[in-house]
Design goal:
By secondary structure, this protein is mostly helical. About 75% of the residues lie in helices and about 0% in strands. The chain has one domain: A middle domain of Talin 1 (Up-down Bundle).
C-alpha cells in the first residue's frame, strides 16, 4: 500500500494577492508622496511660486521640492540597484549608471529651460558632478573602505579603461572650448558641437560594447562573472518587471519636480548673494547623492570593485552622454551652451584628473588616497566662494 504523500516543508505557501499588494504599498509609499507633490504644484504651482519673495515660503518650497525630488531619485536608484543584483556585474552597475544619468540629463535640461536660462548652468553642473564623483565619492569610498579593511583590491584594467575615456572627453568638453577661436569665449561652434556629440556618443557606445562583450572581465574582480544574487530562503525572487515598472514610475515625477525646482533655486541664490556656481552644485548633489551612498556602502562591505564601477562609470556617462544631450537640447532650443571652464576650475579639473591617474595605478587602495581626493573636494567648495 503506497504511503500518503506529505507536502515538502521547503515549498512555502504562495502569498495571497491582497498580502502581496500590501507589501508593495508599504515599500513604495513614497511614490504616493511624489505624485501628490507633483499634483499640488500642477494645481497651485503658480500661486506658490509667486510667493517666493517671502523668505519663509522660499525656504519651505525649496526644501520641499528638493527633498521629494531626492527621495524619488533614491527610489529610482533603489530599483535600479535591485535589478543590478539580479543581473550581476557588469550589467547591474550599467543599469544603475544609466538610470542616474537619465535623471541628470532631465534635471539639467528642465532647470536650464524653465529656470533663469543661465547658459553656464550645464557647465557648472557637469563640473560639479565630476568633482563630486572623482573627488567626493572616490575619496569617501576609498577612505571608508580602507579604514575598515586596511587595503582593498579592484581590477586595474577596468579602472584604466574608464580613465582612458574620461580624460580625453573631459578635456575636449570642458577645457578645449576655452582655446578655440571660431567662436568668442568658451562657446563651441555648430561644427564643434556636432563633433562632440558624435564623438562622445560613439566612444561611449563603443565602451558599452567592450564592457558587456569581450572585455567584461575587466570590470569584475575575477574573470568569473558574478552570479545573480539568490532570493532569501523560502521567498520568490523579486520580479524584474516589477522593478523596471517602478523605476519608470518614479522617474516621471522627477522630470516635473526638477522643472519646478528651477525658480526657487534661482531666487535662493539671488537672495543669499551666493555665486551662480552654487546652482550647478545643488543639481549635481541632487543626482549624485544616491550613487554616492551606493558606492560608499559597496566599499564599506569590501566590494571595492563595485564602488569603482559606480564612480568611474558615472563620471564617464556624465561626459559621454550628458554633454551630447545638453548640446543637442541647446541646438534644438536655440540656447547658447557655455562649456569652457574658468581658470580656477580649469586648474582644479586638471589636478583631479592627474591625481585620479595616480590613485588608480596599482589595483590597490589605501587611506591616504581617499584623504587626498577629499582634500581636493574641499578645495573645490572653498574656491567656489573664495576665488
Amino acid at each position: 500500500m503506497p504511503e500518503p504523500s506529505v507536502p515538502s516543508p521547503e515549498a512555502p505557501a504562495a502569498p495571497s494577492l491582497g498580502s502581496a499588494w500590501r507589501v508593495v504599498l508599504r515599500q513604495e509609499w513614497f511614490l504616493g508622496a511624489s505624485l501628490l507633490t507633483s499634483l499640488i504644484f500642477f494645481v497651485q504651482g503658480p500661486t506658490l511660486l509667486a510667493a517666493l519673495s517671502n523668505t519663509v515660503v522660499l525656504g519651505v518650497v525649496f526644501v520641499w521640492l528638493f527633498g521629494v525630488a531626492l527621495g524619488s531619485i533614491m527610489a529610482v536608484v533603489r530599483h535600479a540597484d535591485l535589478l543590478a543584483i539580479r543581473l550581476g556585474e557588469p550589467f547591474g552597475t550599467l543599469i544603475l549608471t544609466l538610470s542616474v544619468v537619465a535623471v541628470e540629463v532631465v534635471s539639467i535640461s528642465a532647470v536650464s529651460v524653465h529656470g533663469h536660462g543661465d547658459p553656464t548652468l550645464a557647465r557648472d553642473t557637469l563640473f560639479a558632478v565630476m568633482m563630486i564623483l572623482l573627488n567626493g565619492m572616490v575619496g569617501l569610498a576609498l577612505l571608508v573602505g580602507a579604514w575598515r579593511h586596511h587595503e582593498q583590491q579592484y581590477n586595474l584594467q577596468g579602472a584604466n579603461a574608464y580613465l582612458g575615456l574620461i580624460l580625453p572627453l573631459a578635456v575636449l568638453s570642458l577645457i578645449l572650448p576655452d582655446f578655440t577661436q571660431t567662436t568668442p569665449g568658451p562657446i563651441v561652434s555648430f561644427g564643434q558641437a556636432a563633433f562632440l556629440i558624435v564623438m562622445a556618443t560613439g566612444l561611449y557606445l563603443g565602451f558599452l560594447a567592450l564592457q558587456a562583450g569581450r572585455h567584461r572581465g575587466y570590470f569584475m574582480l575575477s574573470d568569473v562573472d558574478e552570479a545573480p544574487h539568490p532570493a532569501p530562503s523560502g521567498q520568490a525572487p523579486p520580479s524584474l518587471g516589477r522593478h523596471a515598472l517602478f523605476l519608470a514610475l518614479y522617474m516621471a515625477p522627477v522630470v516635473y519636480l526638477a522643472e519646478q525646482l528651477g525658480k526657487p533655486l534661482d531666487r535662493l541664490i539671488e537672495t543669499a548673494g551666493a555665486p551662480a556656481q552654487l546652482g550647478g552644485l545643488v543639481i549635481a548633489a541632487l543626482v549624485a547623492t544616491p550613487e554616492a551612498i551606493a558606492a560608499v556602502r559597496a566599499a564599506f562591505a569590501d566590494h571595492l570593485q563595485r564602488a569603482v564601477n559606480i564612480v568611474l562609470g558615472s563620471a564617464l556617462a556624465t561626459i559621454g552622454l550628458t554633454v551630447p544631450a545638453v548640446l543637442v537640447i541647446g541646438l534644438m532650443t536655440g540656447r547658447s551652451v557655455v562649456l569652457g571652464l574658468g581658470h580656477t576650475d580649469f586648474v582644479l579639473l586638471l589636478l583631479t584628473l592627474a591625481v585620479s591617474i595616480v590613485t588608480f595605478a596599482s589595483g590597490r587602495s589605501n587611506v591616504m588616497q581617499g584623504a587626498v581626493h577629499l582634500l581636493l573636494f574641499a578645495a573645490y567648495l572653498l574656491l567656489m566662494f573664495e576665488r
